[in-house]
Amino acid sequence: MLVDILRLVFIAGGLVFIFMLVQACWRKKQSGSFETTPFWPVALIGGVANFLDTLGVGSFAVKTACYKQFKLIDDRVLPGTLNGQCVLPTVTQSLIFVGAVAVDPLTLICMMMAAAAGAAWGARHVASFDRQTIRLVMAISLLVVAGLIFAGLLGLFPVGGDAMGLSGYKLAIALLGNFIFGVLMNVGIGLFAPCMTLVYLLGMNPLAAFPIMMGSTAVLSVFSAGTFIRKGAFDAKAVLAVAIFGPIGVVLAAMLVKSMDMEMLKWLVAFIVIYTSWTMYASWRAVRRSPVQLTVESAG
C-alpha cells in the first residue's frame, strides 16, 4: 500500500514536470526563442550520464564536464538545465527501486523528508555557505570513509551489514545526515554518494541506499526544476533530449544493479566514494587556482 502511494506521488510529480516542460517549450517556439542546441549529442550524453547515475555516480559532474568540453550548453542556463534534466530519470529510478528493494518504510519516508527539509532550509541560507570549505571537508571525509570501506572488504575492519531499516540513534544519525546532504545539494554537492556511504556505515545493506537516495532526489528535483522553468533559466531543447533518453539509461543500469552480486555491489560503493572524493577535491583545486571564479562563487 505504502509503495503504491509513493509511486503515485512520483508519477504525479513527473506529470506536473512534463506539463510545465511542454508548456515552456511551446512558449519558446511561439516567441522564436527555442534553443538551437544539438539534440542528439545532448541526448547521448544524458543517456550515458543517467546510466552511471543509477549506479551511484552522480550525473551532474559527468554532464557538466561533457557540456563544457563540447561547448553545448550556455553556462548561464546550466544549473537550471541540469536540474530539469534530472527529473524524469530520477522519477524512473524511484519507480524501479522503491518497489524492488524492501527497505523499511519508516526509514525510507523519514530520510526522504529529512532530505527535502534540508534542501528547503538550504535554499534560504545557501548564500552564507563557504563552498570551498565544504568541498574540501567533504573530499577528506569521503576519502577516510573509502579507506574504512576498503578495510572492511579486506576483513581488516567491521563495516556494512544486511539491515534494510534503522531505528533508535542510528535512525537519528541517518536523518541528520540526509538533512545535511539535502542542504548541500544547494551548493552543487550531490546526495547520492554521501547517502550511500552513510547507510552503509550505519550497517545497512548497500542495496537499501538506492530507493532512499533516488526517492529523496526525485522529490527535490521536481520543485527545484519547476523554479528554473518558471524563471526561464534553462535550455528547453537540452532538457527535452535528456527527459526522453535519460530514463532509457536508467532502465538499463537498473537491470545491472539488481543482478549484481552483493560483494560486487560493496566494491562498487567503495569506488564511487573514492571517485566522489576526487571530484570534490578537483572542484576545490580548480576554484582555488581561479581567483575570478572564486570571487563569483563567493558573491552568489
From TrEMBL:
**Cellular component per GO, a single term:** plasma membrane
Q: Which PROSITE patterns match?
A: PROKAR_LIPOPROTEIN
Q: Which parts pass through the membrane?
A: 6-26, 38-62, 95-122, 134-159, 171-200, 207-226, 238-257, 264-284
Which UniProt keywords are listed? Cell membrane, Membrane, Transmembrane, Transmembrane helix
Q: Where in the cell is it found?
A: Cell membrane; Membrane
What is the name of this protein?
A: Probable membrane transporter protein
Q: Name one Pfam family in it.
A: TauE
Q: Which protein family is it in?
A: Belongs to the 4-toluene sulfonate uptake permease (TSUP) (TC 2.A.102) family.
Q: Which InterPro entries match?
A: TM_pro_TauE-like
Q: Please indicate if the UniProt record lists Ion transport as a keyword.
A: no
Chain segments annotated as coiled-coil in the UniProt record: none
Its record classes its membrane topology as: Multi-pass membrane protein
Coarse class of the protein's main subcellular location: membrane
